[in-house]
Amino acid sequence: MHLPDEYILEKLSEFWEEDMPNGDITTLSTISKKTLVKAEIQAVEKFVFVGETIIPLCFGKDCHIQNLPQDGETIGKGDLIGNITGPAQLILSRERVMLNLIQRLCGIATTAQQYAEIAKPHNIKILDTRKTTPGLRLFEKYAIAIGGAYNHRLNLSDGVLIKDNHIVAAGSITKAIECARNANISLPIELEVDSLGQIQEALLIGVDGFLLDNMYVDTIRSAVLIIRNSKNGQNIFIEISGGITIDNIHQYLDTGINAISVGALTHQIISKDIRLEFNS
After folding, report:
1. Percentage of residues in the chain having pLDDT higher than 70
2. Who's near 134: CB < 8 A, 6+ residues apart?
3. 108 and 180 fall within a common domain
4. Which domain holds residue 195?
């Protein structure tokens, strides 16, 4: 729920270098350094806002930013997001990077909120995945948290999740779990499964969580029953994934699961429409 200023500035420097490796030729050749302007950031549609600490860093200390909402606020169509006063050259050169980033983060937060509000009454968490945009992971995971969903793993160092290819490479579910336990890693072990037989094998040796992948609803109900009736089964974390959307999520909400992981929170979202306009 926090992005350090140092991280934001480091990433922005990369984005600026990508967008203007030799300067903003058009702006530098047409606008005087001395020209000061006032600009507005405007919402063209409704969304959940993300950018309270990011937008000021996009423009730096030479620009004065006012009236920014707090992260998590709902912005209405036509609302003013903020005012910027400062050098025209600087604002023109950096507006596109700011808009690209903030539009995407607002899209993610808005989508996350839609899922989270549906799942919350059922005490189910909406989780993100590692299906993030390379270079934008922490930004995107931050936006997901602002929207009310939860971060699963920030990276591969952050948790043990044994998936199908790990099982194949290790030789079996049992061998994969045993290897993970023998590694003496002080993290919960979660196992991805796609059949009831895999669950039964894993329960013989024990895991802390299951990811039920691409299962039909009736199979999920059977899986949850098997897990909950096992030793310490009430304490085993159960999440599901695979093709779950806003349109079909409701059928999964009374199955007894703890969480739903949704890759679409990052890899299928649509950026929100935001614009920056100079005051005439």
Report:
1. 100
2. none
3. no
4. 150-261
